[in-house]
Design brief:
The chain is an alpha/beta fold. The chain has six helices and seven strands, in the order ααβαβαββαβββα. The protein has one domain: Rossmann fold (3-Layer(aba) Sandwich), CATH 3.40.50.
Length: 198
């Protein structure tokens, strides 16, 4: 009888944990939506990554961006995710692919992580999270660091590169924070064309 109650409480705790986990992910960043492998390559190519540069992926999920950065671009990469299941999965992939010397996966909230070592930051979050993250990136990233966002732009920044078809925006710290009406109009056109497709 005692074993049945213990089993019952274990199941309750697991149901609550796995039921709340997606909500926590939504609260701190964005729901997990995988970036296609083609978009991953587009994002990393757009950032013009050099070997041994440090790439941070915020909300790294299954690790596809950090794995591609390490394997195809020979970068050092760090993924940060709040979901322990994705962290476990990504760490397993890093180990299986033999990339532990180039890749690290951090279980945590990227809003409290130090991003100052990043040469490139990639993200596929939601607009509200990008808006909230903007000041942290401005404070912590050094001039020349690149920020590549899929789907959601950074309001008030002018992207140096835009792929309107893939909805990828590349910013460079020290340059993109300056107001550039032509580049911002390009982003507005991209967003308007997306909303008219719905």
């Amino acid at each position: 009888m005692i074993f049945a109650w213990e089993l019952f409480w274990i199941v309750v705790v697991l149901v609550v944990f796995f039921g709340i986990l997606p909500l926590a992910t939504d609260l701190f960043g964005a729901p997990w939506a995988p970036t296609s492998r083609g978009i991953v390559r587009e994002m990393l190519s757009m950032a013009d990554i050099k070997p041994d540069e440090v790439v941070y992926d915020l909300g790294s999920g299954d690790g596809r961006i950090i794995l591609t950065a390490a394997r195809k671009f020979h970068a050092k990469s760090v993924g940060i995710d709040i979901n322990p299941l994705w962290v476990f999965w990504a760490r397993l992939a890093v180990t299986v692919l033999g990339l532990r010397h180039r890749t690290r996966v951090v279980w945590g909230n990227f809003f409290v992580q130090d991003l100052s070592r990043a040469d490139v930051v990639t993200l596929y979050l939601v607009q509200a999270t990008n808006d909230k993250l903007k000041s942290k990136l401005e404070e912590e990233l050094r001039p020349g660091a690149r920020v590549v966002s899929h789907v959601f732009p950074f309001n008030g920044w002018s992207p140096l590169k835009v792929d309107a078809k893939s909805h990828v925006y590349m910013y460079k710290m020290g340059e993109s924070e300056n107001h550039n009406p032509a580049r911002e109009a390009q982003v507005d056109n991209d967003l308007n064309s997306r909303s008219s497709m719905k």
